[in-house]
Write a structure and sequence with these properties.
single chain, mainly beta, 1 helix, disordered N terminus
Length: about 400
C-alpha cells in the first residue's frame, strides 16, 4: 500500500518520523512544449532522433519529451520537464528540478556539484537513479525531496531506488526522499542519508530485499539519520550493513524508525566474519606485532588482547609483522582482530508493527560490542512500548 500515515505516528512523546506526508516531491511539473510534435529546438536545447540535448549553460523548462533528455551544458538547469525514458547528466554543476522521468543516470566520470530535487522518478526493473557504472563518480551530489519508485509492487518493481554500491560518489546527501516499490531502496558505500521514508517494498520471486544496503565502508563515513524504513517482509533487512570481506567502519545509525526483515539491522560483517582470533602471537618493542596469520586486508582493524589498550589498530602488515597504533605490553599474546569499528547506534526505534521482535528474529545482528569504538546506547528501544532493544 502507499502512504503509511499510521506508521509515522509514535507514542505521544518522542520524535515524529518521515512518512508520505513529509517526504518526496511536492510540486507537479507543468509542461508546455511537446517534443518533437510541438518543437524540435529552443533556447539552449535541441532534439534529434528521440533525445533532447540541453547544450548550453541555461535554464530549460517545460519540455515534454517522448524519449530522453541529456544535459551536457555545465551548470545548466532542467526544470518542469517530462522525459518518458530518462534524464542523463553528463556535465558538472547541473540541477534537475521538478521533473518527471523514468530514470536519472549520471553518465560521465569526475563530475562535481550535481543537484536532483523535487523529481518524480518511476522505473520498472532497473535503477531509478544510477550512479554505479562510472570508474570515477561525482564529487558533491545531493538528491532531495524526490519520489522514487517502481511502477507497482510486483513485476513492475524497480531493482534499485538509488544505486551507488561501487562507492563512486563523494559528499553524497540523500534527504527527504520517499522510496517505494523497489527491491532495494538505497545501495551506497558512504555519505549521509537523512529524513527519508523507505516503504512498501516491491518483490518478485527470488528477490533479496533491502532498505539501505552497504557492503562495507572501507574507512569512509556513512551517516544514516532520522529515516523511517518499514519492510513488510521477513527478508532481508531495512539496514543490511556490512558484507563478507569488507570493513564496516565509521557508521552512525541515529534516530531511525526500523521495522521488519529477518533483522532490522545487520551491523557488521555477516557470516561470523566480524573478527578473527590468533594465538601464539608476540608483541615486541611495544608496537610490533608478530602473527603468522596476518593478511594484507588486516590493515586498519581494531586489535584486542591482554596488554593491548582500547582503540588500538593495526598497520599494514609486512609478512608476519605489523605496527600497532599504541604502545602495548611485550610478550606472547592471543590477539583478536575486529573488522568493524566506529559503529555508533543511538536513539533508534525498533517497531513491532510487522513482527514481535521488530525483525523476525531480533532488532539487530552482527554487532561487535567488544570493540571500544562501537556504541549501542540505551536510547535504542522498541517503538511500541519504549522497552530496551537488545543489540
Amino acid at each position: 500500500m502507499r502512504g503509511g500515515r499510521r506508521h509515522s505516528r509514535g507514542p505521544a512523546m518522542g520524535p515524529q518520523f518521515p512518512s508520505s506526508l513529509n517526504t518526496g516531491a511536492t510540486l507537479t511539473p507543468v509542461t508546455s512544449v511537446n517534443v518533437p510534435s510541438g518543437a524540435t529546438s529552443g533556447t539552449g536545447w535541441s532534439w534529434n532522433a528521440g533525445t533532447s540535448t540541453v547544450t548550453a549553460t541555461a535554464s530549460v523548462s517545460g519540455l515534454n519529451v517522448a524519449g530522453s533528455i541529456t544535459v551536457t551544458g555545465t551548470s545548466a538547469t532542467l526544470s518542469n520537464c517530462v522525459a518518458a525514458a530518462q534524464v542523463t547528466i553528463s556535465a558538472s554543476g547541473v540541477t534537475v528540478t521538478t521533473c518527471t522521468t523514468g530514470a536519472v543516470v549520471i553518465s560521465t566520470s569526475g563530475l562535481t556539484g550535481i543537484l536532483v530535487e523535487q523529481c518524480t522518478i518511476a522505473s520498472p526493473g532497473g535503477e531509478c537513479i544510477e550512479l554505479n557504472a562510472l570508474p570515477t563518480g561525482v564529487n558533491g551530489l545531493t538528491i532531495r525531496d524526490c519520489t522514487i519508485s517502481g511502477l507497482d509492487a510486483g513485476a513492475g518493481r524497480s531493482a534499485y531506488g538509488i544505486d551507488d554500491n561501487r562507492g563512486n560518489t563523494t559528499s553524497l546527501l540523500i534527504q527527504r526522499c520517499s522510496i517505494y516499490w523497489c527491491r532495494l531502496g538505497i545501495s551506497v558505500t558512504a555519505g549521509t542519508i537523512r529524513d527519508c521514508y523507505i516503504h512498501d517494498f516491491g518483490y518478485v520471486q527470488g528477490d533479496h530485499t533491502d532498505g539501505i544496503a552497504n557492503g562495507g565502508t572501507g574507512g569512509l563515513a556513512l551517516d544514516i539519520l532520522h529515516n523511517a524504513i518499514l519492510m513488510n517482509r521477513d527478508e532481508t533487512s531495512p539496514l543490511p550493513l556490512g558484507g563478507s570481506g569488507a570493513y564496516l567502519q565509521n557508521v552512525t545509525v541515529q534516530n531511525n524508525l526500523l521495522a521488519g526483515g529477518d533483522y532490522c539491522a545487520y551491523l557488521g560483517l555477516q557470516g561470523g566474519d566480524n573478527l578473527r582470533t590468533d594465538s601464539g602471537c608476540t608483541i615486541s618493542g611495544g608496537t610490533t606485532l608478530t602473527d603468522s596469520n596476518l593478511l594484507a586486508g588486516d590493515a586498519g582493524c581494531t586489535v584486542t588482547g591482554t596488554g593491548i589498550p582500547p582503540f588500538t589498530t593495526i598497520g599494514t602488515p609486512s609478512g608476519t609483522t605489523a605496527t600497532l597504533s599504541q604502545a602495548c605490553t611485550n610478550g606472547t599474546v592471543t590477539v583478536t582482530l575486529h573488522y568493524t569499528s566506529g559503529i555508533l547506534v543511538t536513539g533508534n526505534r525498533f517497531s513491532r508493527m510487522f513482527y514481535y521482535h521488530a525483525g523476525t528474529f531480533a532488532p539487530a545482528v552482527d554487532y561487535d560490542s567488544t570493540v571500544a569504538s562501537n556504541v549501542w546506547d540505551a536510547g535504542n528501544v522498541f517503538h511500541d512500548d519504549w522497552t530496551s532493544a537488545p543489540s
